[in-house]
Amino acid sequence: MSLKSDKKIIFWLKSTVFAGLVAYIIYVVRQQPLDWSIIRNQLRVVPHPERWAIGLCLLTPVNWGFEALKWQILLRRVENTPFWEAYRGVLAGVALGFALPAQLGDTAGRVLSLRNHRERAIGASLVSGGMQFYVALVFGTIAWAVHLTLVPERANITGNWLLIILIILSGGGVVFGLVRRRLVSWLEKRTSLHRFAQYWNVAGMYSDAEIAQALGVAVLRYVVFSVQFYFAMRLVGIILPPGIAASGIGLVFLVKTITPAFNLLSDLGVREAAALWVFAPVGGAVDAVPAPVLLTATLTLWIANILLPVLLGLIWVWKLKK
Where are the domains of the chain? Predict the structure, then answer.
C-alpha cells in the first residue's frame, strides 16, 4: 500500500501482461493436435529414444546461447553487456515474441532488458534478426536447389523461377552488406526520417569483422536447430537419407522464416504445414511416415525449442524495467 502511484501502475501492467501470456500459452498448447498415443507407440519401436530426447533438450540452451552470443556481439556498439544479461534479454524477447506480431515482442524484450541506450539497441535487434533471416535464406536456397533434383515434378517453371528469385535475394544480401554504411548515411540526411535515425544508425557502425563474427554465430545457431529438427524426427522413428533430411529441414526453416510473422501462434502451424508439403513427395514419405507422426516430430521440436524457453522467459519478462 506504500507504493507510489506510478509503481502501482507498472505493477498492475506487469501483472496483466504476465497473466495474459500465461493464459495465451495455455490456450495455444490446448489447441495443438498432439496425439500422445502416437508418441507412446513410436517410443516403443524406436531403439533408445531417450538418446534423441536428451540430445534435443541439451541443444536447446545451446541454440539460444548462440542467439545470446550474437546479441552480445552486436550490443558492443551500444553498451558492453555480460553474456548472462544478453541471455536473459533473449529469453524475455522469446516470451514476448510468442504473443506479439512480427519482431515487435522479441525486440521489446531485448531492449527493455537493457539499462541504457535503448533506442540504439532497437537497431542492433533488427540487425540480429536480419542476420538470422539471411542465413535461413541462403541455406534455404541451397535446400530448394537440392529439393528440385529430388522431386523432378516440382522442377517446373514456377519452381525454377522461385530458385532464381531466392538466388537473387541471397546475392542482394551481400550487396546490402557492402553498401550498408552509405545507405544509413543517406537515410540520416533525409529530413523526414532524421528523427528516427537513432534507431538504425548503429547498423552502419559495425566493422566487417563484427559482421562476419555475428554471421558466423548465426550459422552455428542454424546448424544447431537443424540438428534439433533431425533429433526430433529420429525420436519419433522418422529415418530419412541425409540429403533428403537436410534439404527438407532447410526448406521447412525457409518457409517458417519468410512467412510473415503476423500470425498469433508464433510460427506454430507454419512449420507443420511446411514439413508435410516438403517431405510428402520425397522417397515415398507419405507411405513411410504417417502425417500424424511427422506432425508429432514438429510439435516436439516446438515444445523443446520454443515453449520451454518461453516459460523460462516469463521470469525475465516480470523483471523488465520501465
Answer: 5-318
Task: Give per-residue pLDDT as tens, 76-129.
Answer: 888 888 999 899 889 988 888 776 665 777 888 888 888 777 777 888 888 888
CA-to-CA distance for 123 and 135, rounded, in angstroms?
19
Alpha-carbon gap, residue 187 to 73, rounded angstroms? 24
Cα–Cα distance, 20 to 159 (Å, whole number)? 42
Grid cell, residue 156, equals 517446373
- Coil, helix or strand at residue 217: helix
- φ and ψ at residue 3, rounded to 5 degrees: -65, 145
Q: What is the DSSP letter of 164?
A: H
Q: How big is the chain by its Cα radius of gyration, in Å? A: 21
Report which of residues 141 and 7 the model is more confident about: 141
Looking at per-residue pLDDT, the higher value among 123 and 168 belongs to 168
> What is the Cα–Cα distance from 18 to 22, expressed in whole angstroms?
6
- Scan for cell 520425397, then name that residue: 282
Q: Round to whole Å and give the CA distance between 53 and 132.
A: 25
Other CB atoms within a 10 A radius of the CB of residue 232 amount to: 25
* Most confident region among 17-26, 115-124, 139-148, 296-305 by mean pLDDT: 139-148
Phi and psi based region of residue 186 (left: phi greater than 0; alpha: psi -120 to 50; beta: remaining): alpha
CB 39 within 8 A of CB 236: yes
Q: How far is CA 135 from the centre of its chain?
A: 11
Q: Give tens-digit pLDDT for 241-281.
A: 888 889 999 998 998 888 754 444 455 566 777 777 787 66
256 close to 274: Cβ distance less than 8 angstroms? yes
Among 318, 321, 317, 253, residue whose Cα is nearest residue 90? 317
